[in-house]
Amino acid sequence: MTRVPDPLQETVTAMRSSLIATRHQLHANPELSDQERETAAFVAERLRELGIAHHTGVGGHGVVATIQGAAGGPVVALRADMDALPILEENEVPHASRNPGVMHACGHDGHTAILLGVAEALSAHRESMAGTVKLLFQPAEETVGGAKRMCAEGAMEGVDLVVALHGWPQQVPLGKIGLKSGPALASADVFDITVRGRGAHAAYPHLSVDPILVASEIVLALQSIVSRGVQPTEAAVVTVAQFHAGTAYNIIPGEAHLAGTIRTLSHALRKAIPERIRSLVEGICSAHGAQADIRFVEGTPPTVNHPEVVALVADVAHEFLGPDSVVPIEQPTMGAEDFAIYLEHAPGAMLFLGLGERSPVHTPTFDFCDDALPIGVELM
Known about the structure:
Elements: H1 6-14, H2 16-28, H3 37-50, E1 53-58, E2 62-68, E3 71-81, H4 108-124, E4 130-138, H5 146-152, E5 161-169, E6 177-179, E7 182-186, E8 188-196, E9 200-201, H6 211-229, E10 236-245, E11 251-252, E12 255-264, H7 267-288, E13 291-300, E14 303-305, H8 307-321, E15 326-328, E16 333-336, E17 348-356, H9 373-379
Parallel strand pairs: 3-4, 3-5, 5-17, 6-15, 7-16
Antiparallel strand pairs: 1-2, 2-4, 6-17, 7-14, 8-12, 8-13, 9-11, 10-12
Helix pairs in contact: 2-4, 3-4, 4-9, 6-7
């Protein structure tokens, strides 16, 4: 984390109204993952106005900006995600989404506005800054692809430390920052299973190899993976979220399809659970004379915050936000973040910016807290 002089705090205080205007502009014009063309153009134009060197089209619609201080020092990367969600907004506010069925329900409008605020503040004080700051405006966080592509295209080259924040309603009060050392967020991977049996008339089930029966047994068996295969002091989730079969009430179909998510907090469990799923599925299918196509799609690894970076962030928060500004987060969340990809390239941490009491993220009534914007800029 780059330490800054007091004049920078004054700059942040003065930009409150512009931060809110920026956030509202972004909120009103949300774009889905890998469709962030106008958002990226907005970011690039603001960087041009500030005279900050930047590259566009990184990892899709990503933007990477670089601010060099007058003195040498470490290279710190700060990341914000830009994409929105396919949700119909229910907020009745002037800055509500103008794109029906798409909204910033996860706070990425706030994250992007904060990082643009950081760009403005640091560019005004770069003569007193030591080191280099890279600003990573990332596309496609929600579909877990943007971080991997940005890193593949060199966004993390030369970076010594990387930090991101996420607006956190309810659990962290406004004006405070939540910190978790070690595992903070889970991995997120997908399993996709097609059970192939033999169809028949529903009146003659003995002539079938019923894929619905087989797939139902698989659903039940998958529940044993965590309850009987994972140490109780560890955390993991195996959730079946889709089950599709059949087209008529009197026909046993030839196949059934199910899919879901795997969440873990350790790399070892992330590797072991798919192997257990495959073993269970193949065994159940074999017992019934069915076959299965099993596919796993890797998403993002667990986000494991580096203790040294968390301690550094806590020191900065205490200095600039006050001695009671840090809220220790005792338990990790089983939600996921592809920020974990950046942590494979440099030590770092994901911070949780308090938004106070408001609707949860990924709901049609969520709206980022404007009062948290200057706090986010000051902390970053």
